[in-house]
Write a structure and sequence with these properties.
By secondary structure, the chain is an alpha+beta fold. The protein has 10 helices and 15 strands. The protein has a 5-stranded antiparallel sheet with strand order 1-15-6-12-11. Strands 4-14-9-10 form a 4-stranded antiparallel sheet, with no helix packed on it. Strand 2 and strand 3 form a beta hairpin. Helix 2 runs antiparallel to helix 10. The longest helix is centred in the C-terminal third of the chain and has 33 residues. The termini are far apart.
Length: 349
């Protein structure tokens, strides 16, 4: 007989316990792919996806867009010797603090009915870069500001001894061009709204202002290096749209996934006389306070006017993708059906 002391000294076994889970005896189901299951699946997917894709393309085509590239527009307030025009891009490349204005005339070929949105578009701007995406301090954006700034914001964390608010590369590169639209037909500026352009979840949850008077709260902090205004003074006409609650800032801080992107800039105020039904076909003038440099990364800047549909803005990719997948499934289904019929006949013979 084995004593108790001998039992305690026996080596521990690594053999798993005799259970259904550890011995892999659990019941399992494995589908068996046969012609009777695969062929109907291909046909169902093909028949379902093609009409959905056609519907998505139809709604996308209902959206009207007008795109105006203003990257190389000529200055209206600065000229070369002998009155020769100079590009605003060249002006701010030489002196970023030099104000430059330009105007571009364009014509809407048809009426834009319904709600109209103005976007700005950038190309060759990689907001999806890993270090760029991380370069922010979410505690700051929640209104919890302090003299200690997140290390992710470097080298845009401090300006001298003063912490930067908001810190980071995303905030520092905030889009700063000011766009105005003038209707020649109505002889007035198109009324544009600065609010209602950010996601409600962002404005109400992710971005909060600290309590108290913003001017006093931020007096011990400094603005990002590329900014011309302080965060408490981003919108002079609407104080509630200042600080971290500024919707232009909120829209910009939601980084884009691709290097060519657009972001919502303004909404047309359809309560104003002459614009209740949208924008009528005719001549318009875009006035730009040109301050945002893109020549350093070979980028382009665009102004985009767009309507919307039941599914949002213009995006034909999803509809095309559905149609392509549906056609591929139908083609595979027909091909496999022919092979199945031929093989079945050969076996019978």
């Amino acid at each position: 007989m084995t004593s108790v002391s001998e039992v305690g000294s026996l080596p521990k076994t690594k053999k798993p316990s005799d259970s259904a889970f550890k011995q892999q005896r659990l019941p399992a189901w494995q589908p068996i792919l046969t012609a009777g299951t695969v062929l109907p699946t291909f046909f169902v997917i093909g028949i379902a996806f093609i009409p959905v894709g056609v519907g998505l393309l139809y709604f996308s085509d209902q959206v009207k867009e007008y795109i105006l590239d203003y990257t190389d527009c000529n200055s209206t307030n600065i000229f070369r010797a002998k009155g020769m025009p100079i590009k605003c891009a060249d002006v701010i490349a030489q002196n970023h603090s030099q104000p430059c204005y330009c105007k571009l005339n364009f014509t809407l070929p048809s009426d834009f009915s319904g709600k109209i949105y103005m976007y700005y578009g950038l190309t060759n701007f990689y907001q999806n870069h890993r270090r760029y995406v991380k370069s922010r301090d979410d505690n700051q954006l929640l209104g919890k500001i302090s003299n200690v700034v997140s290390g992710d914001c470097e080298p845009f964390a401090y300006d001298g001894d003063k912490p930067i608010v908001p810190c980071g590369a995303i905030a520092n590169s905030l889009f700063s061009d000011e766009l105005k639209l003038y209707s020649i037909k109505h002889d007035i500026d198109v009324p544009l709204l600065k609010t209602g352009i950010a996601w409600p979840s962002d404005k109400n949850i992710k971005f909060r202002n600290p309590e108290g008077n913003l001017t006093k709260v931020f007096q011990n902090f400094t603005k990002p290096k590329n900014w011309t205004k302080h965060i408490y003074d981003l919108d002079i006409k609407n104080e509630s749209n200042n600080g971290f609650q500024n919707e232009d800032l909120i829209v910009w801080m939601r980084t884009a996934a691709l290097p060519t992107f657009r972001k919502l800039y303004r909404r047309v105020n359809h309560t104003a006389d002459g614009f209740t039904e949208g924008l009528l076909a005719g001549n318009y003038t875009l006035t730009v306070n040109y301050t945002y440099p893109v020549s350093a990364f070979d980028g382009r800047k665009r102004m985009i006017l767009s309507t919307t549909s039941l599914l949002g803005g213009k995006n034909p990719f999803l509809g095309i993708a559905y149609i392509v997948v549906g056609c591929i499934c139908l083609l595979l289904g027909i091909t496999l059906l022919i092979i199945h019929i031929k093989c079945s006949k050969s076996k019978l013979m």
